[in-house]
Structure formats: C-alpha cells, structure tokens
Design brief:
429 residues; alpha/beta; Rossmann fold; Glycerol-3-phosphate (1)-acyltransferase; 2 domains; 7-stranded mixed beta sheet; 5-stranded parallel beta sheet; 18 helices; 15 strands; 46% helix; acyltransferase
C-alpha cells in the first residue's frame, strides 16, 4: 500500500508553507518544503563561490553535499540552514537554481524517496505535476498578487525591515513569470488539484479546510457493492460499444477525498452515463418519487441513490448526501433540480451551494449533451459528450449567507455553461 502523499503547489506568498506545516502538525505527517532544498543548494553554491547559472558546477557541488529536509527544516551536511535561507535574496537565488533541468531531476529523485508511512505533506511548485503526479490528494494554494505582496510587506515591517510595497509587488509578478515560463517543471496547477484560494480567508481557516480534505482522503476506500459494480460496468460497455460516445476531463477528477460533481440534466440517462465513467464510486441524489415503487426503489438504492424531497423538505433530504461527503465519498448532483429535455440550462437551485458549504466539499462542474437523443446516438447520428471541469473551492465554511450560497450555485452553473460552449467549438471524431 502506497503511503499517503498530500501535494501542495502554488505561487510564492500564497500560504503554501502555512497550510502544509499546519496539516502535517495536525495529522502527524512529515512536512517537506521542496523549495527549501533549492534554497539550500543556492546557499551552498554562494558559500563555495559557484555560479548559480552554471548547472554542471551546481551538480558537482550537490554530489559533495548532503541535503536533508526534516521536521525542523532543511539541513546541509548535518547543520540546519533555516536561518540563512529564509530571506528574499535566498528566494530569488533558489528561483535561478530551479531553472536547471538536470539539477531538478536530482532533487526530484531525493524528494520522491521521502514518501514513507505514515505519510508526507510536500509543498512546492511542481509537486502534483512532476514529483508526485499520483499523489493521494493535490491542492493548489493561490491568492492574488496584490494580496501576496501585502502579506510580504507586513511581514517585513514586523521584522523592522524597510519595505517598498510597489517593489514587492513587482518582484512577486516577476517571480510568477519566471516560475510559470521556465522550461523545466513550470508552475502549473495539476488538472485534479483542488484550488485553495487564500486571498480572503484567514490562515487558520485555510489550514482547517486543507486538514479536513486530507483527513477524509486518508480514509481507506471500500469496494463498490455488486449492484453498483455490475451496473457501472454494463453502462460503460453499452456507451462505448453502441453509442457515439466521447469523454473529456477525467484527469480533473480528484481520486480521494469528498467531492461533488455538478452536471446539467437533459435525460434519465444522465446519472448512469456520467456516474459510471467517473474514476471513483459515486452516489446519486434522486427525487423521492422514484423510490415509491418498492422493486425499483430497492434497485436504485443498491446503486447508491439517495432520495430527496422537493420543495421545503429538500434541505432535510440532503442529509443523506452530507453523510456520504462527511465520510470522504463522492456525490453526483444536478443543480437544476429536474430534467430539461430541450437541452437549455435552467437556473440552479441553491442545494449544490448549501451542500458544498455544509460539508466543505469542492465541486467539479460537468456537462453532458446528446443523451436526450439516445436512439440517434446509437445510429451514430448524434454524439453524446461528457466534459468535466476543474475542482472549485466551496463557499465559506460554517453557515455562509444565503446569497453567498445562491451565488455559488450560479457560478457553478456558469461553469457548466462554459463547458457546453467549449463542447460546441470542438470537432469530435
């Protein structure tokens, strides 16, 4: 069994270290700041008089130095260098060192060797894309450049150092440009990384949210029931053998941790077609009327369907879905609340926002088209297309305002509309 790995990426000053350190402390995991290893190489190079632009000399230097990250920070040849590598100048030097592909390969191999029980929390700029592309859970911690510059400004002022806000902002933007445009392992969000935007939330909240996701992602995954396994397998075989069927964006689905997939609804085929092709066991929110027939009700319950009442009782009906998400499971929900056979989108109900907020669960927007013309698809006259978007951070945790919940539902619906628009631009073969 592979050890748990939480990969945290993001630009400078977004709160990666605060988040990673906090999660590791709360869960008893090893915390490694991959950037500190590049800082340590740059520090050792400067002490030795080695040019930061000479990759060959840097690699030779690395062969003679033992760089070991640990709970108290990074050590070089057994001595901690944390105090020397946490300056702005050290950060700039590390960014230059990180441009060298050969050096990155050496350090990546060292970083991968640190994954061992009980688990690892590693932060950096290419952890989820290069170092641990199969990490158990991936987060992309970000914030606006202005918010990050303000934090750095306040940090320097607290130390009694002179700080120029505009100069700091310019440095951050230049650092972002260099990190995102470098040829070797550029800073980029992994497709299945959950966004953690720290622009408007406090450090305690970002650590709490990340810890919540990590805790649930660490839970063992049980095998699906026989009815679900057979039904999903049969649906996949049917779709790929008899339909003009296309999928896009499966790499955007987090494999572990709580997840809501929110999709438009145009046919009764939507739940099985979308759910069966997701790379994890799904649960489905379905209207209570479908359960009135005892035989059919028992069948769809065995297929992980959760009954929900319409109208005023809908909120209470979401408790079954909340239980699934609170255990680290995944839910497929249709924000419109009912089918629209015409294919046009309807305004969303607030349920998806309320459910995401109550359970602090990220949401993946999805869209399906063509499923309302299943017979024509069997004749290869109409393609059925399913597209998944990137995970979206839930609205404010706890009890957000009603309008915030509704705004989140509208934002998810806007993303679904955007996915449908992209489908229309795509030539499917």
């Amino acid at each position: 069994m592979k050890p748990f790995v939480l990969a945290i990426d993001g630009p400078a000053g977004a709160g990666k270290s605060t988040t990673a350190r906090g999660v590791a402390q709360r869960l008893g995991l090893l915390h490694v700041d991959s950037g500190s290893m590049y800082r340590a190489v740059a520090w050792a190079a400067n002490r030795k008089g080695v040019s930061l632009d000479d990759e060959k000399a840097l690699l030779e230097l690395l062969e003679t130095r033992k760089i070991v990250p640990g709970p108290e920070g990074v050590c070089v040849d057994g001595a901690s260098v944390e105090g020397q590598i946490r300056t702005a100048e050290a950060g700039e030097a590390a960014s230059r060192v990180a441009l060298h592909p050969g050096l990155r390969r050496k350090l990546v191999a060292l970083q991968r060797s640190l994954a061992r029980p009980p688990g690892l929390v590693m932060e950096g700029r290419d952890i989820g894309t290069v170092v641990f592309p199969d990490a158990t859970l991936k987060l992309f911690v970000s914030a606006t450049a202005e918010a990050r510059a303000e934090r750095r400004y306040q940090e320097l002022r607290a130390r009694g150092e002179h700080a120029d806000p505009q100069a700091i902002l310019a440095q951050i933007r230049e650092r972002d440009r260099r990190d995102t445009e470098r040829a070797a392992s550029p800073l980029v969000r992994a497709p299945d990384a959950v966004l953690l935007d720290t622009t408007a939330i406090a450090p305690e909240e970002q650590v709490s949210l990340a810890t919540h996701w990590a805790t649930l992602a660490m839970k063992p995954v049980s095998r699906p029931g026989l009815v679900y396994a057979f039904g999903a397998g049969f649906t996949r075989l049917f779709a790929r053998s008899l339909l003009d069927f296309h999928l896009e964006g499966l790499d955007r689905i987090p494999r572990r941790g709580p997840l809501i997939v929110a999709c438009n609804h145009i046919s009764f085929w939507d739940p099985p077609l979308v759910g069966a092709h997701l790379p994890r066991e799904m649960h489905f929110v379905a209207k209570a009327e479908l359960f009135h027939n005892p035989l059919f009700g028992a069948l769809i319950r065995a297929y992980n369907s959760i009954p929900i009442q319409r109208g005023a009782q809908a909120r209470a009906g979401l408790r079954g879905a909340e239980d699934v998400l609170s255990s680290g499971g995944a839910i497929l929900i249709f924000p419109e609340g009912t089918r629209n056979k015409s294919g046009e989108l309807k305004p969303p109900r607030a349920g998806v926002g309320r459910l995401a907020a109550a359970t602090r669960t990220p949401v993946v927007p999805a869209c399906i088209s063509g499923s309302n013309q299943i017979r024509r698809s069997m004749l290869r006259q109409v393609p059925i297309r399913i597209t998944f978007g990137s995970p979206v951070m839930p609205p404010g945790s706890g009890n957000p305002e009603r309008e915030e919940v509704r705004a989140f539902a509208r934002a998810i619906m806007d993303r679904i509309a955007g996915l449908l628009a992209e489908q229309e631009k795509t030539t499917w073969k």
